[in-house]
Amino acid sequence: MKRTKIWSYAFGVTMVLSLAGCGNSAKKQVNEKVNADSMSVISNQVGLQEDSALSTLVLDGVKATWIRDNASAKLMPPSLFPDAGEDLMKKLSLENGIPSSISTFLIESNGIQILFDTGMGASDSRLLAGLHALGITPADIKYIYLTHFHGDHIGGLMKNDSVVFPHAEIYASKAEYDSWMKMEAEKNGQVVRAMNAYKDRLHLFAFGDTLPGKVVVMEAVGHTPGHTVFQAGKLLIIGDLIHGAALQLEHPEICATYDMDKQEAIKTRKNLLQYARENGLVIAGMHLPVPAFIK
């Protein structure tokens, strides 16, 4: 293992829509607002089908392509947010679930192409089909940056006992790696298998490091012990900072049950959302609703 060395919408954004296996032409959608201080889902600027798989934006020289991994529409169940309560869910019209996704992002920054997370790796996962639609094979991927080690983020690294990305350099938080390696076998089995399979190409970074592509590593602990957010220019890749945007953007004090350290997760969520607002950043999130960009 090798160790390596951080809302307004005032900047220009060029949105290009691509579809993988969608069949019909994209249908027009009305504004899809999220109730939180002028943050809104960027899908209000393009037409997207419910089964859309790809969407690309370019801002300040950084090209970001969202690749949807989940095969069917995804709703986060209200039970995932027990502190919200039934009254709040009804007030926000979320009692039937919160629109979400399992997403990955392919970023081109400073001449470097990087895949952020790898989805579930399920039999119906769309990541590889999405890459194929872009003319990219798994062997073409040279850099993979991981936000954390939950199965819906590292599952795509492996197919059975074989690596999926034979030439990829894997970058992950040292704090995340160390914490998962100390867990009992019934919790960390998938992590251990994946990290061992890529051990000769595994790089462990510290918060504050700058990675290839001038991508800056930001501490985002709480969801997991080494949960990481990445900044590439005006883009902030937030991993699992948010699971239910329609709820948590307005109420960042509410956690999903997946958050390992509730108080740290709340603190991190509030701080990074404020940072994004103050710096005019576009957010890319692995569980944001289609197409998983928020401005």
TrEMBL record:
Pfam families: Lactamase_B
Name of the protein this chain belongs to: MBL fold metallo-hydrolase
Parts forming coiled coils: none
GO molecular function: hydrolase activity; metal ion binding
Family, as annotated: Belongs to the metallo-beta-lactamase superfamily.
Keyword NAD attached: no
Lineage: Bacteria, Pseudomonadati, Bacteroidota, Bacteroidia, Bacteroidales
Annotated Metallo-beta-lactamase domain residues: 101-286
